[in-house]
């Protein structure tokens, strides 16, 4: 666009100057606007922070208020408890004072009662002595009279009992006379039985001695037979050795001798068995008889 | 692309350099009262006048003064604050 000639250069310069200043002002205003925006943003941030801070402070204030209220309630409760304790303490103190006062009054009353008791005791002792004296006198009189009556009564009773005893003595004498006769007969019978038992015991002793003597004899015989058997066995052994040394021709003779030896041995064994059984039977019979005798003696005694 | 249209009388007067005098002496009242006409002829003067036009300069300076006054009034608050 061509530059207009309708305006003078001075005015154009003026407009140019104003334009430049307007641009500068515009820049300044833009800077101000940015600054304002920043300030507004900062202000909103500060307001948010202030709101948040206020909310936080409110919450903490409420929390603190609740804590303080709880503390106050607890404190009031404890205060009331302590007040009650102090009231109880004062009541206890009053009771203690009352107790001390009552204790002192009780001491005074006890002294009075002691004095009264002493006087009463003295009076009672005196009364008791007079009463006991009179009672003793009465009791003695009563006892003497009762004893006299009892003496008379028991004297009569003793007399009747003496009569009865003399009658019983007479009867007992008669009974003892008859009893002594019966006892004499019984004792005689027991004596004869004892004599018979002694005789039987003597016989038993003799029989036992005899059996023991026979057993000794038998033992000697048995020993002799054993000695003889040993001799026979020795002879047999010698003969066997000689026979074995000489020849086998005498085998039949040897068999006969061996047979006779074994027969003798069997006989000896049979005799020994018989004697043993006999001795055992005798011992059993003797022990049974001895037990019977002991039982009889025990029964008679 | 340049627009093709017939030339107006005000444009011819402006080219002749008489429009300013006419507006200052002949159509002064009309120029001062009719804002649309004033804007229109001012535009024509700026385009076609070969010499300086006092009416236009005066009008532009008055507008400048108004704008500067508005600016001064607008920034008066900050000035007071700064004071």
What report would you give on this structure?
By secondary structure, chain A is mainly alpha-helical. Chain A has a domain at 189-300. Chain A has two helices and no strands. Chain A is flat, with a radius of gyration of 77 Å. With 83 residues, chain B is an all-alpha fold. Chain B has one domain. In chain B, 77% of the residues lie in helices and 0% in strands. Chain B contains six helices and no strands. Chain B is elongated. Chain B starts with 8 loop residues before the first helix and ends with a helix. At the A-B interface, α1 of A face α4 and α5 of B.
Could you give the topology of this structure?
The complex is a heterodimer of chains A (301) and B (83).
Chain A: H1 9-246, H2 251-300
Helix pairs in contact in A: 1-2
Chain B: H1 9-16, H2 19-26, H3 28-33, H4 35-48, H5 54-74, H6 76-82
Q: Specify the overall morphology of chain A.
A: flat
**Helix share, percent of chain B:** over 70%
Largest beta sheet of chain A, briefly? none
- The end-to-end span of chain B amounts to 55 Å
Key terms for this structure?
heterodimer, A: 301 residues, mainly alpha, B: 83 residues, 77% helix, 0% strand, elongated
A few lines on this structure:
The complex is a heterodimer of chains A (301) and B (83). Chain A is built from two helices and no strands.
